[in-house]
Write a structure and sequence with these properties.
Oligomer: heterodimer
Shape of chain A: elongated
CATH topology of the largest domain in chain A: Rossmann fold
Largest sheet of chain A: 6 strands, mixed
Strand content of chain A: 25-35%
Structural class of chain A: alpha/beta
Shape of chain B: elongated
Number of strands of chain A: 14
Helix content of chain A: 25-40%
Number of domains of chain A: 2
Strand content of chain B: under 5%
Distance between the termini of chain B: 28 Å
Number of helices of chain A: 11
Largest sheet of chain B: none
Radius of gyration of chain B: 21 Å
Number of helices of chain B: 12
CATH class of the largest domain in chain A: Alpha Beta
Largest interface: A-B, 52 and 35 residues
Structural class of chain B: mainly alpha
Radius of gyration of chain A: 24 Å
Order of helices and strands of chain A: EEEHEEHEHHHEHEHEEHEHEEHEH
């Protein structure tokens, strides 16, 4: 379609009972982009996916997917999207192949086209050997792979993956990640939700950090990391008594004057611009001050640090007021 | 970070016949899914294969030995039409349980994210349940023939009786679809379904004539659609039909009563089921 964004949401709100799942969420995803929605349980990720895939009506706000309004033209949206939810959406009683053929036919492929497409996807997701067995007999990883295959049957323009690697074994995760990258390379827009910072970092072109029903930060992994400062120098001293001296030395080279000291681990750390270049100088000064080191490292900020800085709580911490229901 | 107004691009509007054609195809695909499930787990068919045989034998030889019909006649001949009624009404709890189980899986989300008619998920189920009911009819006919039941009138009358039964079964599957949408899980649907199904079946002329019942119960039984389908089958298959002497309108015009009941039930429960489905899934 000729709109600028493959996914565009403005001011989405949704309340379940007393829980505000979405509190005015805005989101834009360009064509062919992989957007990672990162947030803890109950942040509103799944609710967002359900609104964008026409499964849930927002209380307020607008959203368009692949150029069609999700409320005004849900049928058009459904024709252009694929969805893999958190729970495998498959018929347990049918074979893997029968599931894919059924979905193809419901997606308006002819029986023959649906058969060909099913065989193609089964091969691609390493399921040919199990194709004619009941899904009931599949392992968790096989189920998730079949579920992902199911969402690709109709060659969607926009693909939604709700926590795609939850409960996946490493092999299935690699297959899933490769598939997502290949799809994006072919021009498919992908929105994936995750609680795993490394997954967002590895897969997504851009990350939207979601907390309490809103996007609180948005950018590439590097941009987000830049928000909380650059590299840090971390010193571990041999004797606890040297902590104060080490701190004073590091403060001379650090970006701000107050290095963080942690007594239990005997570490001092501080952000230092161009840390590698200044390291010899730091070591010389420490030596001159008679400080003996156990360890010395330069640490790049992780998305965990980003999350902690942005939300004030750790990424894996679930909001106690809300279960994982949506 | 508010975006400019989203330009709504009108999709290629589909003509009504085109939409209907796709709806029929979707229903057929979903109906085939239910049938494929049965092929993989044939024990799902017990309630239309083994159960009617057991009931026919139990009723004909246990109750049949003690029941004397007003005006005389064979209880076996009387019973089979009652079994038609019971089996057709039995499609309601079956549909309720099946749909309820479907709703608790993630599969419904998958269906809903596909461009299919909203009613197709429900209709796919009711149509496949109807097909299994037709198998049930064949089982009852075969069992009936084995114990001495005969269609004594013309083949046309017999076909009309079966046609009315199928229509009635279809109406009952929609009642069941509605029930399935109201219930939270399959176990509850099963329990509640039978709570309605058993009294409805037994407070009718399906197994015993209504003449001997207390007044209030008799009036209820005479207007019970179960009595209408049993009486209609008795009229069309031939044999004893004590209801013919009852003055209630449905007993005087049982075929018409079945038609009216079925159309009314479909007219009320099919749209209600679709509304409940939308409410349930959109939350």
């Amino acid at each position: 379609m000729n709109s600028t964004f493959a996914i565009e949401a403005t001011g989405l709100r949704k309340v379940f009972g007393k829980t505000q799942a979405l509190a005015g969420l805005d989101l834009q995803v360009g064509h062919g982009e992989i957007l990672g929605m990162l947030g803890p349980n109950g942040a509103g990720k799944t609710t967002t996916v359900r609104v964008l895939t026409t499964l849930l009506r927002p209380d307020a706000g607008r959203a368009a997917v692949a150029g069609h309004d999700v409320l005004a033209e849900p049928g058009e949206v459904r024709r252009l999207i694929g969805l893999t939810g958190q729970y495998a959406a498959l018929d347990e009683c049918l074979t893997g192949r029968a599931n894919l053929i059924m979905i193809g036919q419901l997606g308006r492929l002819s029986h023959k086209a649906a058969r060909i497409r099913a065989a193609e996807l089964l091969a691609r997701f390493d399921l040919t050997g199990a194709a004619d067995r009941g899904v009931k007999t599949y392992s968790g990883g096989m189920r998730r792979r079949l579920d992902l295959a199911a969402s690709l049957v109709t060659r969607p323009k926009v693909l939604f993956l709700d926590e795609p690697s939850t409960g996946l074994d490493p092999r299935s995760r690699m297959v899933t990640w490769d598939a997502v990258r290949a799809l994006a390379a072919d021009g498919t827009t992908v929105l994936l939700t995750t609680q795993h910072l490394d997954e967002a970092d590895q897969l997504a072109d851009r990350i939207a950090v979601v907390d309490r029903g809103m996007v609180i930060a948005d950018g590439t992994a590097d941009q987000l990391k830049a928000k909380i400062g650059g590299e840090r120098v971390v010193l571990t001293v041999a004797a606890e008594a040297d902590l104060a001296t080490a701190g004073r030395v590091l403060a001379k080279h650090a970006d701000d004057l107050q290095p963080m000291t942690e007594r239990e681990t005997r570490t001092v750390q501080a952000p230092v611009t161009k840390a590698a270049r200044r390291l010899p100088e730091i070591v010389r000064d420490l030596d001159a001050a008679g400080v003996l080191l156990d360890d010395l490292s330069i640490r790049h900020p992780s998305l965990d640090d980003v999350f902690l800085t942005l939300t004030g709580h750790a990424a894996e911490q679930a909001d106690p007021s809300e279960g994982d229901q949506l | 970070m508010t975006a400019a107004a989203i330009p709504a691009i009108p999709g290629p509007a589909e003509s009504l016949p085109n939409r209907l054609w796709w709806a029929v195809k979707d229903i057929w695909v979903l109906c085939r899914r239910s049938i494929a499930r049965i092929a993989r787990e044939p024990e799902q068919l017990m309630d239309v294969t083994i159960q009617p045989v057991v009931f026919v034998l139990l009723f004909s030889y246990v109750f049949g030995s003690a029941i004397h019909l007003p005006g005389g006649g064979s209880y076996h001949q009387y019973l089979i039409s009652g079994m038609f009624g019971m089996a057709m009404a039995g499609s309601a709890p079956g549909t309720a349980v099946g749909l309820c189980a479907d709703m608790t899986t993630g599969l419904i989300d998958r269906f809903r994210s596909l461009p299919i008619a909203r009613s197709a998920v429900l209709a796919g189920r009711t149509v496949s349940d109807l097909i299994t009911q037709i198998l049930g009819i064949l089982v009852i006919v075969a069992t009936g023939l084995a114990i001495g039941w005969r269609a004594e009138n013309s083949i046309g009358d017999a076909m009309l009786a079966i046609g009315l039964s199928v229509l009635f079964a279809f109406a009952m599957t929609w009642v069941g679809a509605c029930g399935g949408m109201l219930m939270r899980n399959a176990e509850a649907a099963q329990a509640v379904g039978f709570l309605f199904f058993l009294p409805l079946t037994f407070c009718s002329n399906a197994f015993v004539p209504t003449q001997g019942m207390p007044t209030l119960l008799r009036d209820f039984a005479n207007w019970n659609p179960m009595s209408a389908i049993a009486a209609a089958c008795r009229t069309l298959f031939g044999g004893p039909n004590p209801a013919a002497t009852v003055h209630a309108w449905p007993m005087q015009h049982p075929e018409l009563a079945v038609l009216v009941w079925s159309i009314a039930l479909i007219g009320i429960f099919a749209p209600a089921a679709v509304i409940l489905y939308k409410r349930k899934v959109l939350r």
